Amino acid sequence: MNKTQLHLQNLHLLIKEAGSMAELARRCGYDNSASLSQIKRRLELQSDDENGRGIRPSLLAKLENGMGKRKGWMNREHDPEAEQRKKAEAAARLAEGKSEEAHMYAPRPALDFEQAEGRVAIVSRNTYETQITVAINLDGTGQSRFDTGVPFLDHMLAQIARHGMIDMDITCKGDLHIDDHHSVEDIGITLGQALKKALGDKAGIRRYGHAYVPLDEALSRVVIDLSGRPGLVYNVEYTRAWIGKFDVDLFSEFFIGLINHSMMTLHIDNLRGKNAHHQAETIFKAFGRALRMAVEFDDRMQGQTPSTKGTLTA
Ligand SMILES: [Mn+2]
């Protein structure tokens, strides 16, 4: 197919999509369709000319803009039926992921949460980038199982479980061939969703939690308010950019995802530390400890909501 034929074919597609030549002209900023008709006629006459220049670039841009096509659309061949089919398939896959049937292909928790006593939540989140299932029990014993494909993150999540006395089961199938970014961020998001769900109306809990945790030369402080508002103050200067194969920038992505979906206020300060592994580990241990304190029931609260507003979820 030569250039003139390609442009003519795409012009036909645009006319069909717009509904008529007149409508196409209107959308592309013409007062009437006469000049477009002339161009179409010229293309038809020149369609066998191998040296034909087709439609000039300024008009191509006008057509692409007017019909919401990407730059260069007019210079590529299109199969509208195949594109439509692909779109429908993608929409169906996305709808499936959002539905209650998500667990049909989202990973299932290996630990038994269905029968567990306590504040349990199981959340699956599916996108093209990651498929994640998080199961937690805030009233657990600290047992955990992780299969995220990011070993150092598993090591850190285990600190939250162990020191937060929270049972956790997290599975992630992510696009690790790109890098760890989407997996780490989306695990933060999904864990945040699970925390919010497990906390429910927060009646009778302590709400605030804090902890200092040292590890050899490193020391971190984490302060939590299960306020119902997202907020993160993150003061951490890692001494290295990488811990093994793990990019330390991703820790802040994890916590941003977490606070935005759990709706907590979170202050993280690494007060000192020379070894980046130690810095990270003190942060996650302190987070676990602080979270344990914040989610625990306070007997003296006697089931009241710890807020003079009367709610922590509105
Ligand atoms: Mn360690």
From TrEMBL:
Q: What is this protein called?
A: Imidazoleglycerol-phosphate dehydratase
Q: Which stretches does the entry tag as region Disordered?
A: 68-90
Which keywords appear in this protein's UniProt record, sorted alphabetically?
Amino-acid biosynthesis, Cytoplasm, Histidine biosynthesis, Lyase
Keyword Zinc set for record: no
The pathway this protein participates in, as annotated, is: Amino-acid biosynthesis; L-histidine biosynthesis; L-histidine from 5-phospho-alpha-D-ribose 1-diphosphate: step 6/9
Give the similarity note: Belongs to the imidazoleglycerol-phosphate dehydratase family.
Q: Which domain of life is it from?
A: Bacteria
Q: Where does the record say this protein resides?
A: Cytoplasm
The answer to whether keyword Signal applies is: no
Instruction: Name the enzyme's class.
Output: lyase
Q: EC number(s)?
A: 4.2.1.19
Please report the organism this UniProt entry assigns to the protein. Neisseria dumasiana
Q: Write down the chemical reaction(s) this protein catalyses.
A: D-erythro-1-(imidazol-4-yl)glycerol 3-phosphate = 3-(imidazol-4-yl)-2-oxopropyl phosphate + H2O
* A family per Pfam: IGPD
- In what ranges is there compositional bias, type Basic and acidic residues? 74-90
Q: Which InterPro entries does this chain map to?
A: IGPD_sf, ImidazoleglycerolP_deHydtase, ImidazoleglycerP_deHydtase_CS, Ribosomal_Su5_D2-typ_SF
Q: Secretion signal: which residues?
A: none
Q: Which residues form a coiled coil?
A: none
